[in-house]
Amino acid sequence: MTTPSPVFISTATLHTLFTHKSLINHLQFYLPSFTSTIESPLRHAHQTGPSTSLLLMPSWSCSPSLPYIGIKLVTYHPNNSTQNLPGVHASYVLFNSITGQTLATMDATELTVYRTACTSALASKFLSRQDSETLLMIGAGTLAPHLIKAHLTVRPSLKKVIVWNRTVDKAKKMIENLQSEGGFEGVCFESNDCLEEVVGLGDIVSCATNSETPLVKGEKLKEGAHLDLVGSFKHSMRECDDKALKRGKVFVDNEAALVEAGELVGAFERGVITRDEIAGDLLELIKGEKNGRTNAEEITVFKSVGSAVVDLLTAQLAYETYIKNHQILVN
Fold first, then answer.
1. How far apart are CA 143 and CA 109, in angstroms?
2. pLDDT for 181-225, tens place per residue?
3. Rounded to whole angstroms, how far apart are CA atoms 116 and 112?
4. Distance between CA 204 and CA 147 in Å, rounded?
5. Nearest-angstrom CA–CA distance, 187 and 137
6. What CA–CA distances, in Å, run from 132 to 6, 159, 233?
7. DSSP H helical segments within 143-281, as ranges?
8. What is the DSSP string of 274-316?
9. How far is 257 from 165, CA to CA, in rounded Å?
10. Phi, psi at residue 194, to the nearest 5°?
């Protein structure tokens, strides 16, 4: 048996292997089929210095139809900003689960932003109104352009994108970059420095920030809005207030959100909502086991914290597309 040489999939190559649309479709098809066959233990976190850490996020498939083991390796060095370097670096390593051979290493930072944005957009297919016209993007970091593209993919009815960021110039710069890429015919972009003024305009409100104080006030959300919460991943972080959760029909990407997301953990502790009031998770929405939006007036909320299952399925699509493309080039 020939041993395949491990491949390295760079950031630039990753962009050529899938689009937001193809990844959304891939997740919608594969999540119901393989979630129950994928093992993903709790992530390992190790302190490597006074302010630095190493995170290990393994997962593996027990199905021969998905013969992969994967692990995401993440280093967190917050002081890198003083050297003009990112604070987070990540790699994803994919193995063959039958032979144990290394198949590929790829840029997990880009992999993660793609899968995060596509998870939000997939939920939006079930939770946002089909006639949504205005997307409010809160935050202008690395994730924001991907969230905008992914939401536009599933809701082509969107005609306006408003971007709010604490630093207005950063929002304007991101809009310029997106417009220079093209592909947004019929969509107008604008930045706004008054969040309270624009929250009520959003048919879809997507948040990707590290805020520890609530940015979205529930009383400001319009009837029929869909609130997409991506940023928080620890108890001290909150992108919306309790009123937003109380007014909304709340879904999560997976059960980890119930113990990791600051908005939900805090709301449970304060007795604002109970765990039993969480309407369901993404898998239940896809499988039709839980109803998403049932009328045009209700407010829906989706809180995601990410999962190793989605990481593995995203790496699968990247690797299999790479191999297929390479074989075409060879032949």
1. 10
2. 988 999 999 999 999 999 999 999 999 998 999 999 999 999 999
3. 6
4. 11
5. 14
6. 44, 8, 27
7. 143-154, 168-181, 195-199, 242-247, 257-260, 262-269
8. -GGG--EEHHHHHHTSS----SSS-EEEEE----HHHHHHHHH
9. 25
10. -120, 95
- Residue 28, token pair as written in the block: 């919608």
In which band, very low, low, confident or very high, does the pLDDT at 330 lie, cut at 50, 70 and 90? very low
| Distance between CA atoms of residues 8 and 105, nearest Å | 5
Please give, one letter per residue, the 3-state secondary structure of 96-158. Answer: ECCCCCEEEEEEHHHHHHHHHHHHHHHHHHHHCCCCCCEEEEECCCCHHHHHHHHHHHHCCCC
Mean pLDDT of 52-56: 91
Specify the DSSP element, H or E, that contains 71: strand 68-76
Dihedral sign for Cα atoms in the order 177, 179, 184, 190: positive
Q: Residue 331 pLDDT more than 50?
A: no
> What's the mean pLDDT when you consider all of the chain?
93
Q: State the angle between helix axes of 308-330 and 20-34 in degrees (0 to 180), rounded to the nearest 10.
A: 120
**Which pLDDT tens digit goes with each residue over 233-292?**
888 889 999 999 999 999 999 998 999 899 999 999 999 999 999 999 999 999 999 999
Alpha-carbon distance 12 to 27, whole Å? Answer: 22
